Amino acid sequence: MPRGEVPEDRRGDPPSWSQQRAAVIAAQEQALKHARRTEHEKATAILREYIERFESAGIAPRPLRALPYKGSGTIRTPLHGWYLKQDRTIGIDTEARYYILRADGGLLTRLRGAEIEPVDAPLVVGRGGRDGETFDLRELLEMRLTDPVFA
């Protein structure tokens, strides 16, 4: 349907305001999903490039640990990779998957370890975060090449 043209319903009546609004919202959601997917694909390509650079520089992957939402200490995970931030809240694994390394700090989690799910990798790390600290992904990875974070 051409832009600006309003679809008619089955009876030939123009759609109501709520139908038009629902169509606009659906189109916006679709565009946002596409933009996020595109950003994730670009970021993943950058991560793969830097994983090769880490390995070439002799920076080996290490076990990644999660931080509890509340309390102190760290929580075991099955992940191996590299921390991206000094506070060890963001990491990548050897397959270029991006993780926010936070977990419930309950007793069971501390005993069994935490299963952390990957999230879509951003091109700007920390965007929308409370601390206001943001980094371009490539700049952050470059920093980790010269100053790796070891736990």
Structural class: alpha+beta
Can you count the helices?
A: 3
Strand neighbour order, sheet with most strands: 4-3-2-1-5
Cα(first) to Cα(last) distance is: 55 Å
Mean pLDDT: 88
Structure description:
Helices cover 37% and strands 19% of the residues. The protein is built from three helices and seven strands; from the N terminus they run H-E-E-E-E-E-H-E-E-H. The chain has helices at 17-56, 107-112, 137-146; strands spanning 62-68, 75-83, 90-93, 98-100, 102-103, 124-125, 135-136. The strands form two sheets. It has a five-stranded mixed beta sheet. A two-stranded antiparallel sheet has the order 6-7. Helix 1 packs parallel to helix 3. The mean pLDDT is 88.
Summarize the structure.
The protein has 151 residues and is of the alpha+beta class. 37% of the residues lie in helices and 19% in strands.
Keywords:
151 residues, alpha+beta, 3 helices
How would the blueprint of this fold be written?
Layout: H1 17-56, E1 62-68, E2 75-83, E3 90-93, E4 98-100, E5 102-103, H2 107-112, E6 124-125, E7 135-136, H3 137-146
Parallel strand pairs: 1-5
Antiparallel strand pairs: 1-2, 2-3, 3-4, 6-7
